[in-house]
Design goal:
The protein has helices at about 10-20, 25-30, 35-40, 60-65, 130-135, 180-185, 205-220; strands spanning about 50, 70-75, 95, 115-120, 145, 170-175, 195-200, 220-225. With about 220 residues, it is α/β, with parallel strands linked by helices. It has a domain at about 115-225. The chain has an eight-stranded parallel beta sheet, with helices on one face. The termini are far apart. This is F-box domain-containing protein.
């Protein structure tokens, strides 16, 4: 004889574990008005969500209601200009596509748990210097990936003090970058373990080779193309 177990009769612990495999937006939309049990559950501080789509852009209130429960957020900035601030106090991973202004990033330093950041600028920036400078000030950040479809510039100041040093361990420059530009970035990253970048200058000269060898000697993983 088979036993039928209703989803709503599962333990809260098991339901929360199942929720981890789904888009948080879909969970909130599907269960928030189902009954009082699920309403209380999805509003519980023990339940953390990952929002992976732009669907919530048409439902601003949903994001506002659950922003303190988000651990991961991905959205397209061309459709929205959400201000990510300290109220997103559980946010650990943030992906922003089509970003057009670094003003959207101005409050990220107030996030106490943000360790992973991916920014896709598409073709909106021709100079990434300010963006990198801002990102390097984020105190908890360990992983940063920057994506651009066009040739960009990035020259950081050679004058560095201890307060400007970043805790980044993983840097992925998914945009063209010269060895000279890269050499201005590396001094800001004393804890760097893994680096990937697209070399826009393939001249095999001694200076470039020396810089590459120096970088390779100080990190565990170095990939360039």
């Amino acid at each position: 004889m088979s036993v039928v177990i209703l989803f709503e009769n599962l333990s809260n612990e098991l339901i929360i574990e199942i929720f981890e495999y789904f888009n948080g937006y879909e969970i909130c939309k599907s269960f928030s008005n189902l009954n009082s049990h699920f309403q209380q559950l999805i509003n519980s501080s023990f339940v953390l969500f990952k929002f992976y789509s732009n669907d919530f852009i048409t439902d601003n209130q949903l994001l506002l209601n659950h922003k303190h429960q988000l651990i991961s957020l991905q959205y397209d900035a061309s459709f929205s200009s959400y201000s990510i601030d300290s109220s997103f106090n559980h946010l650990e991973s943030l992906i922003i596509n089509n970003i057009s202004s670094i003003k959207l990033l101005s409050n990220l330093s107030s996030l106490p748990r943000l360790y992973s950041l991916t920014i896709d600028t598409q073709s909106r920036f021709d100079d990434l210097t300010q963006l990198y400078q801002l990102v390097f000030t984020l105190p908890k950040l360990k992983y940063f990936k920057c994506i651009s479809e066009i040739r960009t510039l990035c020259y950081l100041s050679s004058k560095i003090n201890d307060k400007q040093l970043s805790n980044l361990e993983y840097l992925y420059c998914d945009h063209t970058c010269t060895i000279n530009e890269l050499s201005t970035i590396i001094p800001y990253l004393p804890k760097l373990r893994s680096l990937s970048f697209c070399n826009s200058n393939h001249d095999d000269d001694d200076d470039n080779n020396n810089v590459i060898k120096k970088i390779q000697s100080n990190i565990n993983s170095f990939i360039y193309s």
